[in-house]
């Protein structure tokens, strides 16, 4: 039997030797290529891992492709711009401290000597929707003959600088008004007859404030819970778009008034007054604020921006607290303080009630909730570089850090991307 098989094989080999050799050649060539490409895949994977760990982000990828690989897959339902991730962005900011003249010294981190720049190379990407870059040309064309106002505290002022820096890529704004202290200002984009205002109103309510630019007070704040601030109510009907914000100032020592009568206070142990707490005051004022909005017939778009968290670690601003981180944190790795949780809870509850009523009346009231995405950016604050070259004379100098406001350029620029998306697509 074995002899017969060998004879058959010799006969077949003689007759088909060319075909058999060709078949074996193809088989071995295929195996060789497979091994070669498998090894190449491994090499590429190792090289890419090394790049991720030890080098700046490569410039060849596109942001939407990366967004699809991060976090939960897109779920059916309504887009939420405020739930997402900060991902590496090698293209960097759209402006610099050298190309924009609107950056105030306290937020000009690069000019002031901040040694790292990695915080500039991240971009906010929502998980369930696309978020294009802010396009200043398109935006200005859309806003011809329109008016914007950002109303609130120094974070609103921080934001308006970012807003102007991005818009100035298309046309530089001209300042047409400022108050005595330069806290309320207005700019004009002449080719579009478009104006942007910032209105200083940290409580949104009437308040007597006895505090200098560095936060040093000579007396308690006198806050009228039942009276809104006329600095914005007198101009309310003049604006097509408004972004209101408050919150941070409510934790300061204050005496509360209602009907021009002292009602109580927050943190005034030397006064013989009822301690009402900042949460009582904030809820009271927001209730009055939203009632005012709901009683209006405003035809434009009104945003309420939630309070932004600070990132002081190892102490508070007055006790050596700092913010030395150099990159974003993952969600859940940095938590809101108890005070910030209270502020955000009050804001969420009050605007939740207000937006339901606004939709019934045909008012365009929007929540602009930047708390969550801001919490993940402890690297984006000036820290000691609120001041120019703070360690030039003494490397161990004790500097009061700014872990509340934002470097420019920096994370705050993402707010403009979200604003444009909401304005364009609701």
TrEMBL record:
- Trichome birefringence-like C-terminal domain residues: 131-421
Q: Which InterPro entries match?
A: TBL, TBL_C, TBL_N
Localisation per UniProt entry: Membrane
Which coarse location class describes where this protein primarily resides? membrane
The protein, known as: Trichome birefringence-like N-terminal domain-containing protein
Origin, by domain of life? Eukaryota
Record keywords, A-Z = Membrane, Signal-anchor, Transmembrane, Transmembrane helix
Q: Which family does it belong to?
A: Belongs to the PC-esterase family. TBL subfamily.
**Which organism does this sequence originate in?**
Anisodus acutangulus
Keyword Protease (UniProt) = no
What does the record say about its membrane topology? Single-pass membrane protein
User: Where is the Trichome birefringence-like N-terminal domain positioned along the sequence?
Assistant: 78-130
Query: What GO cellular component entries does it have?
Result: Golgi apparatus; membrane
- Drop me one GO molecular function for this one: O-acetyltransferase activity
